[in-house]
Amino acid sequence: IRLGRLLAQLMPDEPEVMGLLALMLLLEARRPARTAPDGSLVLLADQDRGRWDRGLIAEGQSIIRRCLRRGQPGPYQIQAAINAVHSDARTAAGTDWQQILQLYDHLLAIAPTPVVALNRAIAVAEVQGPDAALTLVDGLDLGGYYLFHAVRADLLRRMGRSAEAGAEYDAAAARTQNAAERAFLHRSRQALPRA
């Protein structure tokens, strides 16, 4: 963030530099709530939003509003805007998923990568349901990426397809080297209803 601020001072007319700074501020604002005291992961929907740094959120949102008014959106600006929408929601249920989906549509148009498409599918699941999202996810060539399997697992779980979800949680856990992520995936698998 310190380097981002310095770069923004050196290049104040570069919207993507400002977008990157806003993105870093918004991500850092949520860091204290991302893990439990024992080090385990806490999903965005389950985070204690009272632990989010409202000062960093306000700064990041202010920067991204200024960027977007320039009308030269780039990937960092759009990612920051997505995070700004998440940061606006006082509760997980209050998240404006329709706006997030629209922002992902813009991001996918300028950065058409499979990972962006995977993240967009998560927003589709919130707006149109897990069935629509699974169709999109299944069209992606990301079999070696652990989050691909984790997303598939969650969608299958939401659809009541526990056996398939369990296999996907296993596939995701086998593809990550991060112990906290692996532990989260194992806990998620164990929490699946038994057939």
Summarize the structure.
The chain has 195 residues and is mainly α. It has ten helices and no strands.
Q: Which descriptors would you attach to this protein?
A:
195 residues, mainly alpha, 10 helices
Can you offer a commentary on this structure?
- It is a single chain.
- With 195 residues, the chain is an all-alpha fold.
- It is 67% helix and 0% strand.
- The protein has 10 helices and no strands.
- It has helices at 2-10, 15-30, 54-69, 75-88, 97-110, 114-128, 130-138, 146-158, 162-174, 179-190.
- The radius of gyration is 18 Å and the shape is globular.
- The mean pLDDT is 96.
Tell me the Rg in angstroms: 18 Å
Quickly give the structural class. mainly alpha
Number of strands: 0
- Element-by-element helix/strand order: HHHHHHHHHH
Please state the overall shape, judged from the principal axes of the Cα atoms. Answer: globular
Work out the strand percent: under 5%
Q: What's the mean pLDDT score?
A: 96
Distance between the termini: 48 Å
Number of helices in the DSSP assignment:
10
Secondary structure: helix percent: 55-70%
Give the low-confidence spans: none
Largest sheet: none
